[in-house]
């Protein structure tokens, strides 16, 4: 089956099959970036990317940039090797690229870089998703079919733009100030559910970033239907979900 038919089908299945999955937040800061998250088969692996003198560098802040830590060396090359071993098919992984510099020039270099990896851009079960400073939705049509985007709640997306959405995300603080202990206040629960409903109406999963990240919070998020659990503790969360 050709990718142009298969990818929308896989994306639809992933969007409809609601259930909690793991988002490896700031994966590049971990002791074993990419490889541990891949071993655990997390659904999303995040890399923050800066465009610096023509290179795509992976870093948390501009002051932490290291010329040796490129998107290619840390993610594209090892991911390409995994794809070769898997004979061109993955389990439904999203490489989330959080753009920290201006979207249009960063995207131009990113697309040119990705074109060097045809095995990656044509891989079944791999999604490449832009977050952060990406171009406005009206410009999404200008990018290749293998590029998808991280949406935001309460945006009036067109049908074509919805097809380019991989998920919907927002700051947890936009819905709640809950610290993860005890029960979520009823008024906050309603706000969280409203965001979830927006995403589900688009047939997309919902993620909250900067959310409480320990078992009681995971349990409460699971119970109210948060699809994508944002975490810095992926090994512990993986054990929690396996139970």
Write the SSE topology.
Blueprint: H1 3-16, E1 21-24, H2 35-39, E2 44-52, E3 55-58, H3 71-85, E4 89-99, H4 103-114, H5 118-121, E5 124-132, E6 147-151, H6 159-163, E7 165-171, H7 186-201, E8 206-209, H8 215-224, E9 228-231, H9 234-242
Parallel strand pairs: 1-2, 1-9, 2-4, 4-5, 5-6, 6-7, 7-8
Antiparallel strand pairs: 2-3
Q: What is the count of β-strands?
A: 9
CATH class: Alpha Beta
Q: Domains counted in the coordinates: how many?
A: 1
Residue runs with pLDDT of under 50 for 5 or more positions: 1-17
Largest sheet, described in full? 9 strands, mixed
Give the fraction of residues assigned to helices.
25-40%
Question: What's the mean pLDDT score?
Answer: 93
> Structural class of the helix and strand makeup?
alpha/beta
Approximately how much beta-strand content do the residues carry? 15-25%
Q: What's the CATH H-level homologous superfamily?
A: Phosphatidylinositol (PI) phosphodiesterase
Number of helices: 9
* Rg on CA atoms, Å: 17 Å
CATH level-3 fold name: TIM Barrel
Task: Determine the oligomeric state from the structure.
Answer: single chain
- The CATH architecture would be Alpha-Beta Barrel
Distance between the termini: 35 Å
Q: What coarse outline follows from CA principal-axis ratios?
A: globular
Element string (H = helix, E = strand): HEHEEHEHHEEHEHEHEH
